[in-house]
Amino acid sequence: MPQVIIYAVASFICAFALALAITRFLGLFVRVKGSSMKNTLHDGNILLAVRPGRYHRGEVVLCRYPHRAERTIELGAAFSLTWHTLFVKRLVALPGDTVEIREGQLFVNDSPVPDPPAMGSAPSDYPPRTLRSNQYFVLGDNRRASHDSRAADVGPISGKMLQGHVKAVLWPPGMIQTVK
Hints:
Layout: H1 2-25, E1 27-31, E2 46-50, E3 60-64, E4 71-74, E5 80-83, E6 86-93, E7 98-102, E8 105-108, E9 111-112, E10 126-130, E11 135-139, E12 157-158, E13 162-171, E14 177-178
């Protein structure tokens, strides 16, 4: 009987370590909660987000916001696990860009950024702001119902808050597609 317990504990530890390594270095599976990315993504969609690579203007990203539902479990002096609430948004401006919303129209570096048909225009103006190094500006596609970089408690996010590139909708089966 003790061998079975040791085997079960060892299996659990190996599975946990493998899952941790996959999510840390390769990719994440996340579920959309809410309507901030409607009509691009929908509440309940399961997404695949991959970690490595450079971020580009216009892509859908997985990010975390400062001071938002963080939980940490201390497992000893040198090891802890931290969970962050993750959000899916569209990356609209990169470090050094100047972002502005004028009469509902998004401008990046003084050039209008056309809204794809799925997007809703921003309901209010946002004054010009030039992003510093390591600052990124994210917006939800459903801009009328998105808590994003326009909000004072969010603002531009840092590079370390970008958690991955959203590549595909994996669930439900009728909505499987790549994300652009």
